[in-house]
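Write out the bound-state structure for uridine-diphosphate-N-acetylglucosamine.
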Amino acid sequence: MRFVHVVGVRPNFMKIAPIMSALGRHMDVEQLLVHTGQHYDARMSQVFFDDLDIPRPDVNLGLGSAQHESQTGTMMVALERLFTEVQPDCVVVVGDVNSTMAAALVSAKLGIMCAHVEAGLRSFDRSMPEEINRLVTDRVADLLLTPSADADENLSAEGVPETSIHRVGNVMIDTLLSHLDRAKQLPTLDAVGVEPGAYALVTLHRPSNVDDPVVLQSLLAALEWVQDRVAIVFPLHPRTRRRLEEFSLLERAAAMPNVDLTEPLGYLDFLALTASAKLVLTDSGGLQEETTVLGIPCLTLRSCTERPVTVSVGTNTVVGSDPQRIQAVVREILAGRGKTGSVPELWDGRASQRAADVLIDNLKHRSVHQG
Ligand code: UD1
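---
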């Protein structure tokens, strides 16, 4: 059974690591890891391979950044060549990024079985590039491995047959749980100069937040208010740093006395900071889930979430970019009235084992049917 796993960006690495390790425990499995190179800076890519002990990619297509449309097209050309040469029995894609959709489309066109891990999530906001990627990927993939019941419901409502939907849980949480102890032992908080439970962790990178100078300024104003009350650690995504520079806002951000603007951090350092934060403010998808499992209150700086279980069950509150709304929720958290929440079903550290079982069973079944 030859699996080809396609990854491209930071959050993909945390998702593919436990799946490859679970599949690796099965007999007769051959695995090839392909990195499109969508993320290429050492701090956005290499450091995750080191932290998570993932095998080096067998192939790095080195395609880099571009407009999303041409980036996706370039990936498809390269992946078509590769899949034709390698002849995988199954292509595994994770998440909702351009690399995910490109690989799913090429698999479908070549008639190769494609499995999408983290299927079924929907923000119902098609202005998000990720929502288009989710819709297209789920429409063409053969096996849809979902993290939560809402994802199953979304897929059923779109007419996906029940036999294609397999709820396995959240594979990214497998990685979190297996690395948490190691992360907590690191001297990250000392190095950054913060005390446990006495700082807010901030991340921003969505185009809707950082590519619009008005929204970005409004978020900066909110952070100015927050840092008067609690220290902030804010690792800057390259997209965000570039926009702050372009809009002449970097000086204003750097002038906040109680904010530590850092370079992007590795997986373990970032996990150490998340686990001990008083609160997290973010527009990331994965961080909404990680804070839910760690029991840390999270403010999602977007108008919607594709991960509603983090709101209904977990610690997440969707607040948008309005400073007043952000202030109201931060005030509650600092007063000790933050959301506590609980851990969603099947986010138990064994999702990738279940995913591997589904993949193997389906490949075996398929080969029996093909004679
Ligand atoms: C991508 C994903 C997003 C995911 C995020 C995680 C899509 C549509 N977006 O967004 O869903 O949440 O990754 O981080 O796939 N850049 C660098 N170095 C790098 C990578 C990027 O400097 O290693 C800069 C480039 O200027 C690039 C910009 O960041 O143009 C954006 O990168 P891109 O991969 O297009 O999207 P992200 O914003 O990272």
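---
Residues 9-11, 38-41, 44, 65, 68, 97-98, 129-130, 205, 238-239, 242 surround uridine-diphosphate-N-acetylglucosamine (CB under 6 Å).
DSSP finds 17 helices and 13 strands in the chain.
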